[in-house]
Amino acid sequence: xxxxxxxxxxxxxxxxxxxxxxxxxxxxxxxxxxxxxxxxxxxxxxxxxxxxxxxxxxxxxxxxxxxxxxxxxxxxxxxxxxxxxxxxxxxxxxxxxxxxxxxxxxxxxxxxxxxxxxxxxxxxxxxxxxxxxxxxxxxxxxxxxxxxxxxxxxxxxxxxxxxxxxxxxxxxxxxxxxxxxxxxxxxxxxxxxxxxxxxxxxxxxxxxxxxxxxxxxxxxxxxxxxxxxxxxxxxxxxxxxxxxxxxxxxxxxxxxxxxxxxxxxxxxxxxxxxxxxxxxxxxxxxxxxxxxxxxxxxxxxxxxxxxxxxxxxxxxxxxxxxxxxxxxxxxxxxxxxxxxxxxxxxxxxxxxxxxxxxxxxxxxxxxxxxxxxxxxxxxxxxxxxxxxxxxxxxxxxxxxxxxxxxxxxxxxxxxxxxxxxxxxxxxxxxxxxxxxxxxxxxxxxxxxxx
Length: 450
Hints:
Layout: H1 4-9, H2 12-21, E1 43-47, H3 54-63, E2 68-69, E3 79-85, H4 96-102, E4 109-119, H5 128-147, E5 153-159, H6 165-179, E6 189-193, E7 212-216, H7 221-232, E8 236-241, H8 246-256, E9 259-262, H9 270-281, E10 287-290, H10 305-328, E11 337-341, H11 345-348, H12 354-375, E12 380-386, H13 399-407, H14 417-428, E13 439-442
Parallel strand pairs: 1-2, 1-3, 3-4, 4-5, 5-6, 7-8, 7-10, 8-9, 10-11, 11-12, 12-13
Helix pairs in contact: 3-6, 7-8, 7-14, 9-10, 10-12
């Protein structure tokens, strides 16, 4: 679906009109292309006193080919990223260090640049004052994401003090994702990295080499984009969708060099049939992406029971049944990953979508409940929550509502299925195994929701 307003803004006449009238100004976003460097310019790395991550982060960024700069008063340099280790801030009076770092360079970030603040989980802090100061970092990063503009994103990455090799590898993977064009439509997020099974790839351009990844709802939209991204990154993709989508599914699977499975996930025998297929053909499944979903919109007072039941069953209950079967048969190995697709509607709610919002909030509940339980088995569970994404479904939304959905975010535009796919792809990497229990919004920092 074409965003004609964004296309007009990129023209000479459009830019002049936008500037004169103060209209929304959608920036041209930097998206990932294989072979691209992580950043279009050097990164400025700073740290609060007693920060525990700056040294490690500097090593990881240098190994990833990022040119590092130290803070220099009065510099006229332009930066592709600002990275700050705030783990040493243990009192609200020390928050001034954030101002001292960011204020001189706030206007020095290149378009589509990146801002990353590294913090500690408040629950792990030794004192209430330290927890208070660390919680304050969320306000900083979310405000930067809304202030800096020009496609610049800002994130807070919380890294637990009880670190292991998996923590280091997943920090590396997370930095590579957030600094790159893969994260073009992700901003204002808080990402937690703990401990867990994580393995760095031999080639970061193919982080899924040798991995078997199941994608449900793969025939169209986000599922089709995801299948292509996973294949590009080296995965053997098992693409699943309902039999009615068989032709489209076969085309997607063939393009990705994967296999197609036609299956209605709500069928009583679907979990056992799927588990049997995976066991017989692959012997395991390294990552599962629960992408299949439907909408049956009506206000609650006008909604019949079938609309309610269908949405809950496809979007939530079928995921639980499949997880249960695959886990019971131990088809998900140590280091496995489960990624579910929620929605901004599951966070903020949406008129006329009580069934859909309920199911997508339930997906967040699934992550919250499974993540600590499966961590003991070395399996991570995360979710993505897309906002306004340009698909055939959003194309049907009335014009005024559609334009509001596009503009009500820090990017002033809708996202692409590719943006959701890239985020899911990062969560399926073996190197992301210590990223666990997160719900990452892919919404351009929507003004709706938390």
